[in-house]
Amino acid sequence: MSQVKRLIIAFLFNVFFVATAFSQGSDALDIYVQAEKYRQAKNYKAAIEEYNKAIQKDPKNHKFVFQKAKCYLAIGDKDNALNCFAKTAELNEKYVDAYTWQANLYQERKDIPNTILNLDKAFQFETDQKKKVEYKVDIIKLLYKSGKFDATWEHIQDAKSQDENDLRVLYFEAHFANRNEKYHLAQVDMEKAITLLDSKDPKEISKYYYELGYAYHHLEEYQKAKETFAKANYGPFKGLILELGPQFNYSVAYAFYQIYDLKRSLELVDYTLKIDPHYSAAHDLKVRIAEAFIDKSAIIDQTKSALSSQQGNEKWIAAKYFEMAEIELQAGKYGDAIASIEECLKLEPHNYNATFILAVSKYKSSLKDEAKDLLANAVTSHGVDHETKAKFHFTLGQIYKDLDDKKMAEEAFKAAHFGLFKYAAMKEIKSLKNEVNVVSDDSGEITKVEEETEF
User: Fold this and answer.
1) How far apart are CA 159 and CA 344, in angstroms?
2) In the 8-state DSSP scheme, what is residue 278?
3) Signal peptide: which range, if any (predicted)?
4) Which of 147, 225, 254, 455 has its CB 3.0 to 4.6 Å from that of 217, i.e. a possible disulfide?
5) Domains along the chain?
6) Is the pTM of this model over 0.85?
7) Which residues of 242-278 are buried (b: 16+ CB within 10 A; e: fewer)?
8) How many CB atoms lie within 10 A of CB 357?
9) Across the chain, how many H-helices and E-strands are there?
């Protein structure tokens, strides 16, 4: 065959191929138009049949598959809709709507990982900056709701790269920064945020002032924190602000003093006085703790001498053994404290304060099971007042916590939620749950492409 004939055949083949492809494309478009008419008339099954014919003619046209997915969605066939949206993204990875629809369907199924995966894809290919921010805000909310707080940082930075003045993003970054001891960053974010607020409604603005006050507090700028917290003292923030104040921390310090945890009590007293150097009750408690640390060996020796010469006056003897046991407990002489308080209990078996001294001494001697049993029995006894029961339950909570029994510890702390131990029990329960405080004003549901998120 001559070279000329070969060229002619090749040319004719190309013409035939292009003509055929054009004919198929034209046919596919005609079928697609008919499918759209059916879809607009809500005859979805007929539309799906026509879309299938169009796809057969032009299998790489992502638009055909996407519209077919919407028909499946309209008749409630979400499995096929999801498959078609996924196929759309496979045919055209830059088609953002395919990802947002998948995200919505996966969220309905509570499949958070796939929801986030598709929102991330939408962010990757979206060209509208505002929408990109919305996708990341949706991801951050989902991670919060899933308890995956630590995974939000990367998404916060992605959102901030699109709009560094978005109030929601500034709040999320400040919240993350505060919980990761990046207080200066939180301060900068929230000082900026409050200049952007266009509302004075405490329901809307409290969270920004709370995060700023929280940052000031941990930067030891306590006066600034106090002034800022005054603007955040609303709704759920009232309790959070209370926890950072001198009254709360003094109360917790006093609770630990009551159960003979002097070291922890002193730490909390010092913290209280850093917040408010003029808090007189904290100064008084610090004096009492200092007195407890004074060497009282001479007093113990004198008491023992007095006891050896006394007989008959059981009430006086029991009181002296109690005093001596308390001194020995405070001095860390737990074995001696156990021996002394057992002598007291021989004379006064229903002295519940003595039982408490015995339980604490055993607890500090690492006899935790014995201490636990003593207190568990004591709290069920008749005649024990509510305040004393709260003290017993609070100590039980500490023992269960040391035994790594979080369930029983939480139950004990809940039972201790009374009087002087109320705030201390609250703090312990929160630490057991390892709670992260974040406040959102909406439901946390993700939004479709055309909708704007409120936060």
Assistant:
1) 67
2) T
3) 1-21
4) 225
5) 172-244 (1.25.40), 245-293 (no CATH), 297-433 (1.25.40.10)
6) no
7) bebbbebbbbbbbbbbbbbbbeebbebbeebbebbee
8) 25
9) 24, 0
